Amino acid sequence: MNVRRYFAADMREALKLVQADLGPDAVVLENHKVVGGVELVATLDHEQALQEHELRQRARYRQAKKEEDPHLLPAWVRDERTEQPEEPSLPSRFVEAVIAAPKAGGRDQQLAGLSQHLQEKRKVPQQDEDMAALKAELELLRTQLRDMQRTQSGELGVGWGRLRARLQRVGLGEDLIESWLASMPVSHQHDEDKAWQTCLGRLAKSLRMDTETELVDRQGVVVLLGPTGAGKTTTLAKLAARHVIRHGARGLVLLSTDSYRVGSYEQLQKIAKALGVSSALVEPGDNLDRMIASLGPRRLVLMDTAGFSRQAPEQMAQQRLLAESRYRLLGQLVLPANLQGAVLKRNYEDFSGFNLAGAIISKTDEATSLGETLSLLAMTSLPVSYVTNGQRIPEDIAVPRAAQLVSQAVALVKHVAKPATRIPAIKVTGRMANSSHN
């Protein structure tokens, strides 16, 4: 009998090796987790392989029963064991059927049959270790089925490749896409549009919205964090104007820790003067709490910060300044939607050491894709407080809803896909050159 062993890093790669070597008619007899991956035992000689495998399984089962002392077991357990016929192991009957099933529906029926079989076995009193082994075996087979569905996606009703491409065009991350496709309902596998809507719905559900009182209506210290050019100062101006319109200027003060960039604090002073509110610069070595206390009773403090990488000494000093405060600081990470996913992720990592209470999506008016930003927010579960979409103060800021963000992400893909709606390259270059606002 031609029985072969295959080793691979995961089940998917192991199944590829089996199919490449033995073809689609191969039968997997055993699968084991080993150091460094998984091991499969497979053959092409179906009947003989199954018979010999059954004999080995029964021999091991009988040997295990002999090693037990029947006098140590309750009478009802001994009676049940004498009445129950010996059954072959689950993989020998099930794995072949799963691999041979031509469509996902057939495989799911096999999985449902296995689940029902396990439910029936649970009715028979067994030792805890037997039950744990059955559960582990079922979970392994479920994982194997998911891996085979991904590997053989071309054989399924709907080509996941097309759906994956649509999700990628939105800018969504591979981890999100992979998790959604792996858990897609069987009923959607022949309906790409329904599967597409399911993925968009899952994206909306995975986005956390800041459902508390709007930031400008709260009391406390709101700190805007983010890289240089993220739009922090402009966003702060919009929040300040929003607060003044609702509550007046007396209860608001604007602070800045950015003493590094020339003209940064001067810009904040102009905003404060236009709104009729106080402002102050917090320099390195200052005590933030004493600075805030010296400003008198305040309802809300909005603080602008400098943007540095995580390793920069200035960033570490700024982090210490904020960490030493006794006030409850509400850190808001300003994420520019016009950046690529890898850059957004690095920005999040650079500022994750601060007390992040939420995020503000900025520059959506300059973005050609919103999916990268939404992917990061979905993966980090950072609540979204606001979205900004222009330079007008205070008009171009809004409290978003998850469904609106997803719809906008899809609309951007359709907009970019139409050549007639694209801005000529010379205009894009000019705009980018003139859009270095913070």
How does this model look, in words?
The protein is of the alpha/beta class. The protein is built from 17 helices and eleven strands. β10 and β11 (397-398) form a beta hairpin. α4 (90-100) packs parallel to α6 and α9 (192-206) packs across α16. The model is unreliable at 68-99, 151-158 and 418-438 (pLDDT under 50).
Write the layout of secondary structure elements.
Blueprint: E1 3-8, H1 11-22, E2 27-34, E3 37-43, H2 46-67, H3 75-83, H4 90-100, H5 104-122, H6 128-151, H7 160-170, H8 174-182, H9 192-206, E4 220-225, H10 232-247, E5 252-256, H11 264-275, E6 278-281, H12 288-294, E7 300-304, H13 313-323, E8 329-336, H14 341-351, E9 356-362, H15 371-380, E10 384-388, E11 397-398, H16 402-417, H17 425-433
Parallel strand pairs: 4-7, 4-8, 5-6, 5-7, 8-9, 9-10
Antiparallel strand pairs: 1-3, 2-3, 10-11
Helix pairs in contact: 1-6, 4-5, 4-6, 5-6, 7-9, 9-16, 10-11
* CATH class wording of the largest domain: Alpha Beta
Number of domains: 3
Biggest sheet record: 8 strands, mixed
DSSP E strands, number: 11
What's the CATH topology label of the largest domain? Rossmann fold
Radius of gyration: 31 Å
Provide the helix percentage: 40-55%
In short:
The chain is an alpha/beta fold and 438 residues long.
Structural key phrases:
3-stranded antiparallel beta sheet, about 450 residues, 3 domains, 8-stranded mixed beta sheet, Rossmann fold, disordered C terminus
